[in-house]
Write a structure and sequence with these properties.
With about 280 residues, the chain is α/β, with parallel strands linked by helices. It has nine helices and seven strands. One of its GO terms (molecular function) is oxidoreductase activity.
Amino acid sequence: MTAQQKVWFITGCSTGFGRALAQEVLAAGHKAVVTARNVAQVKDLVEGNDQALALPLDVTDAAQVREAVEAAVEYFGGIDVLVNNAGIGYFAAVEEATDDEIRRIFDINVFGLSDLIRAVLPGMRARRSGTIVNFSSIGGLRAFPAVGYYAATKFAVEGLTDALRQEVAPLGITTLLVEPGPFRTDWAGRSANETLPGREIADYADTVGAARAGFRADTGKEPGDPRAAARAIITALAADAHPQRLPLGAPAYSMAIEQLESMLAEIRANEALTKSADFDAPAA
């Protein structure tokens, strides 16, 4: 991706990363399709600017996904960068979670993302160019108590994106996984479920309960700046060969290194046992 003007299609622009990215993309001279479930919340981003288009989009509505992509292509002629940012958090122990909430977070964080990818890929394939940016999380590399299902959705995004990268690279299309740490995006506030009255299990008070309270208490105090994150993403994509994954914020960097080094050490420590599972392998 060069510094030339691009058309960005960004989901979840009412607040947080989506809003910040829309602002920075437009400030950098690009065109932007800004979407939100309530389109009135993003009207201020497009007023008086023919380089921006606001569209209503609930990523769990497959018909609306197709309509939004078609409207963007009709208005701008194509989509160069898809940013799958829309997502929610969910706080519960694995055992405490409800069926409806589990399915809801996967519908938004995984299946909505997948629907958008499949909607934009035909146009990108036809032009043999394009970039798909999928928001994962540091929680897509390591999980924490109280956010197991959130982490599960982000691990799914990581796997899907890794496979997608290999499939579309020969077609001139690239991907980027964004892995933020703690940012002031209201992720632990408005976008997440409330606590679970009547469902909180006392045995998890010291793990899940403490973690859940910590996430809530830190809302609005996180070190990450969404506007700075947006600028980092734009800078990354402007490189001749941009990274495949981009942890964002110092905490994400530290946690990613710690997790990967720990995994590598454990795998190496069990090398003999691992290899003993092959046919004709010596016993561990």
